[in-house]
Each structure stands twice: as structure tokens, then as C-alpha cells.
Fold this protein.
Amino acid sequence: MNRYLAAPLEQDIRKKMVLLTGPRQVGKTTLARSLGESFQSPLYLNYDALTDRPSIERVQWLPTHDYLVIDELHNMPNWKSYLKGIYDSKPPQQALLVTGSARLDTFRQTGESLAGRYFRWHLFPFSVKELAPQVSDPELALDALLRFGGFPEALFEGTDSGRKRWQNQYFTDLIREDVLEFSRIHEVRAMRNLVELLRGRTGSPLSFESLSRDLSIAPKTVRSYVEVLEALHIVFLVRPYHRNIARAQAKAVKLYFYDWAYVLGDDGARLENLVATSLQKHVHYLADSIGEQLTLNYLRTTSGKEIDFVLTQESGEAVQFIEVKWGDTQPSHALRKMAQQHPEAQALQLVRLARHATQVDAVQVHPVASWLMQLAA
């Protein structure tokens, strides 16, 4: 299956090393292997495979391989220094792609510099934009994604029982293995209970104090647990929009799961989470492909009203105000007000049950599926 990153990755790996990150089981290994079809002598190595690990540690492969994939390298001690040495000594014609999860995406915080040696790409779950060409219709794509989520195994299994079995195993493994291994957190039960609570609080401003009371642990500990879940690409945070960055950071964040089919709540909650993930995918694709820096935020007005999402430029200027509804085609007062105050930005209401696009005052009302097709990825 041809993923949306296949073409740009094939171009970039012929120029520099590529670091491919994203949630577990989102398809990184499958994509990396598929790119080998364009080369004469590809080689795939996985650090987690006992048969491959000695070859990786001792650099035991032929220089004639023109495409080298090293999977799960972030599990190797001192992998940053190792990777720098591999890249600096490899044959010029050898393409190098490294895949991994959390540590690979946070390597810039400490350690050996890889500046100038790599392109970084993020692989996300399937979106309407990516799935629609394969099922011939955006509405069918949206229906499938809402029901099964965007992770390949659950999505293409195409059954509720298959999705539930996959989710149970996926989140059990993440908490039992990845969370413990990444963070050295040993309170497995507390982390599992936190994830269960968060499933029912997606899309709402997050209160660490409330969570701490429910879990009987300190707010600081809850915050650190959420940071680990974010680093492991289990959830992502959407911060409030404000031109004053310090004030924005002081306000409550909203949280969404990369697997929106896992969240609790009604269809509207899952739809909002799906749109959030699609916008996150859009923002990262633009940053990875052309260096355009957009930020995904949400807005709370001085009167306490909220707008689900705001896309902002690096300068802090709002580009789009976006509200997500299941059936209501009448824009909210807050959205109308933002449309009037910021005529340079688009004001959009995305409605699942809308039959066609309309305009109400300065607000554009769109069916969700057709509008998501306009995103970059």
C-alpha cells in the first residue's frame, strides 16, 4: 500500500539521512521496506531482532548495499553517537533511513549533534485525505475512520471485534513496555488508570488537579505522566491561542488521542478528535516537507466561549478558526465574532451531516469529509 510519505521520502533519502518517527504500529516499518523496491541492493536491520543486533552494533554489512534501513535504533545505548559515526563513514551512494518512536523524536534535546545530516519526517495514522483515493469516496473514508480509527491494522481489519482486540493489545503493550522503558515509571496501575480517565476527557481543557484527585497522586506526577504519553505519540496536546505566548502557556491544554476510535463519548467527541489528528498531520507534513511553521491551538474567549481549533502562523497570526459539529450548521456566536474581528483569517464550521458547503455571514460551513480532503496530507 502506497502511503502519503512514500514519494517525498524516496527523494530525501537520496540526499541525506532520513529519521522517520511516529506512533507505534502506524506503518513506519512497512513504509521503510517498501521504499527498498526502488533500489538494487536494499538491506533491512532491526535492533530489536536478536539476529540483527550484532550486525548493527559491529557495523557488519556490505558497503555495496545502496539502501539501508535500521529499525528501532532508539533502543540502542548511545545511539546518537553511533548514528553520527555511521552517517559520516557510509559510502556516498548509500541511502540511510532510521525509524523509531519517542527517543528518535526527542534526540535534539541532548547528546551528539546530527545537524545538517538528516531530514525528519513524521508518519501519522490514515486520514480522509489519504484513505479516500483507496475507497473512492471521502464520505466512505470518513465513516470507516470514525468507526475503526486510522491505524492500519484496525482500519483494514474492518470489524468492531478486530478493532477492539487490536486496541486492547496495543494500549496494554504501550503501557506495560514502552512507557516503563522510556520513562522508568513503575506505577503501571496509575498510568493505566490515567489513560482510562483521559479517554473520557478528550477535547476539554485538562485539569491536572482534578486528575490528581481522581488518581490520588500529585498534580506534578500527573503532568509528568501526560508528558510521557505525549512523547510516546499516544496523545497530543493542543494549547490555547494567545498572541502573548506566556499567557497561552499558563492556561489549560486540551488533549487528544492519535487513535480517536479509542476515546469515550459520543460520535461528536470522536469526530472532533479525528479532525484534531488530521490537522496535526497537516501541520507536521507542511513543516517536514516545506518548512512551513503552523501551530495547532484552540481559543477560549474572554466570555468563556471556545472555538475548537485555531491554526496560527509562526508570527502568531491566526490563519483559520475551526469549529467542529455533528449536525448544527448555524455558526456559534464566538465563531461569528472571530470572523468579524479577524477578516484576514478563515472562519470555518465543519459539520458531519452538512450536505453541501454554505456561507453564513462571514463563516464558511463545510461538510467535514470534503473539507478534510483539502488538507496537505
Summary: The first helix runs from residue 6 to 12.
